[in-house]
Amino acid sequence: MSQDSRKIRLIMDLRNQGVTDTAVLSAIEKMPREVFVEEAFLDQAYANQALPINCGQTISQPLIVGLMTQGLQVGNRHKVLEVGTGSGYQAAILSKLARRVYTIERHRDLLAQAEKRFTKLNIRNITSMAGDGYKGWPAQAPFDRILVTAAARIVPPELVAQLSDQGGIMVLPVGESGDVNQEVIRVRKDGTTYHSERMFPVRFVPLVQGLPEYKSATRRRE
Ligand code: SAH
């Protein structure tokens, strides 16, 4: 079966499973997921499943990307923050729907790979940075939309603080890592109040606070 027919089947699958927003489906249809997967998994680029990427992380399942993106209700004037760049696929999908996307990844190797993919695909409205996304990106706040693609134990307060208080929406998985009871939550903020609603169960890699330790030849020892 060709990649094109696999892709058509995937889009039908997503539609059957609740991704009905045509702008979201069209962004997924136009984005070459094969650019974001590791070479060993090229033949599975359009399978509806998560796949391993470097640093022990995963590129999310297309259905989850579709449902979370749809739930985020992204408009073309929106400034969006994504936490957990990973392969860069979710950020690339958001870049087709929003005005500008800011994305943060704690593994700088993953970030470098993702940035190469954005350049290759000529995507110009993504700004990316290596850092701890648990703290958000204060210099660029407020954001109209925030999407977190790693599971937090609680809704990170700094992220709520960086959400626009005029109808800002954040979508994020919440729950213990490895827990089968993680859930995607949608937070809406108006003024100083916000309320959250449960969307669907999910299983994500954990949102880890702080940065990984890199072995560096220049690091000094006491
Ligand atoms: N959105 C990604 C999915 C990546 S998996 C994609 O489309 O491919 C989640 C990612 O979140 C991992 O790459 C992990 O390293 C990253 N992550 C986990 N905790 C983080 C944190 N505190 N700050 C930034 N990135 C984090």
Write a brief caption for the model:
This protein has 222 residues and is of the alpha/beta class. Helices cover 27% and strands 23% of the residues. The model has no long low-confidence stretch (mean pLDDT 94).
Report what the structure shows:
- This protein has one domain (3-215): 3-Layer(aba) Sandwich (Rossmann fold).
- Helix content is 27%, strand content 23%.
- The chain has helices at 3-16, 22-30, 62-72, 89-95, 108-120, 157-161, and strands spanning 51-52, 58-59, 79-83, 100-105, 126-130, 145-148, 166-174, 183-190, 193-201.
- It has a seven-stranded mixed beta sheet with strand order 5-4-3-6-7-8-9, covered by helices on one side. A two-stranded antiparallel sheet has the order 1-2.
- The model has no long low-confidence stretch (mean pLDDT 94).
- The structure holds S-adenosyl-L-homocysteine.
- The site of S-adenosyl-L-homocysteine (SAH) has 24 residues, from strand 2, helix 4 and strand 4.
Keywords:
222 residues; alpha/beta; Rossmann fold; two-stranded antiparallel ribbon; 27% helix; binds S-adenosyl-L-homocysteine
